[in-house]
Design the sequence.
């Protein structure tokens, strides 16, 4: 009986450690290279209205799993119509550098405003 209890306790400890280790997860990364014609458009993340930079710009997302993230951005440039586009960022890379070297291209052509 004593051996059974010891074995059961050890098994429970191993299972709990496995669950805890799986919950933390390693960081994963995904990158997007935003390009516009003409260049110099602001890229705004519409989820939280953050300015992600001006085109051309490389943006990297960080996560704890490889699950894709749905993103909607708006391109803005004075004298041009705003352009909104949505896409999935695949966070499947182990490092920022790896993600940057395999960045997804998002390219838009902005339409000039009529006066």
Sequence:
């Amino acid at each position: 009986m004593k051996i059974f209890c010891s074995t059961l306790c050890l098994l429970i400890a191993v299972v709990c450690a496995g669950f805890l280790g799986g919950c933390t997860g390693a960081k994963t990364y995904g990158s997007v290279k935003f390009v516009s014609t003409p260049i110099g458009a602001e890229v705004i993340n519409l989820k939280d209205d953050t300015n992600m930079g001006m085109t051309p710009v490389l943006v990297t997302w960080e996560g704890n799993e490889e699950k894709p993230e749905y993103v909607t951005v708006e391109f803005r440039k004075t004298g041009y119509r705003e352009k909104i586009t949505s896409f999935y960022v695949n966070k499947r890379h182990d490092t920022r550098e790896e993600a940057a070297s395999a960045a997804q291209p998002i390219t838009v052509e902005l339409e000039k405003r009529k006066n």
Summary: The chain has two helices and seven strands.
